[in-house]
What we know:
The protein is of the alpha/beta class. The protein is built from 10 helices and 6 strands, in the order αααβαβαβααβααβαβ. Helix 3 packs across helix 4 (about 80-85) and helix 3 packs across helix 10.
Amino acid sequence: GLQGDIPLTLTRMLPLLQSRTAMSEELEDAVTAAKEKIRDQIDSDMSQDGEPVHPGFLVGLLRRHVKPDAVVAVDVGDHTYWFYKRFQCRRQFILMSASMASMGFALPAALAAQFQEPQRQVVCVTGDGGFGMVMAEFTTAVKHHLPIKVVVLNDGCLKNIKKEQARDGYPEYGIDLHNPDFAAFAESTGALGLRVVSGKKLESAIREAFSYDGPALLDVLVDPESMLPGVKRVKRL
């Protein structure tokens, strides 16, 4: 590891770098195949417009409608994997705290971002577990007229914990959630709240929420069985 001023350190390092050799044909083929696999997965997800909503389909629609210069705050959970494996950034500024297991991060991060960047679109992508921990802070957006857009992937459980318990051979324990109607909650605060149960109605709901002049919340009932594999850290010797 290096500690130092970034411009100064990089300037000192540049003369020490050697020119890179061309990528081998074998490696280039492997990279191309990996990219094609990802594109195929994204295309497959975009055909899943049934009920309940497929998480990959939701992220694909967000990719269409989130502005190129938006700030996107992403919470911690299974939806985090769907976001970073399916959301192809253009120039969006992504706020993510997944490696710190900090559930509830995205909503306050979105509020801070909207205070800092009042002219930019700010989107909060969160799960029902993370949002439920801090949902009272949504009233802050209403009080201060912060037009954040909150997208809740609502599957009724702590799905990331569920798959980790299964991966490590433990029985399911303590993962079921008793959720309120998040859309009705948003409406009760004076914001726009929309509840979506079908993929066929999702895009119109996203358009309505994202064009709303004020804070808006999408409560999207997603498939609790659609999960992406988690990451198991390699033990250091």
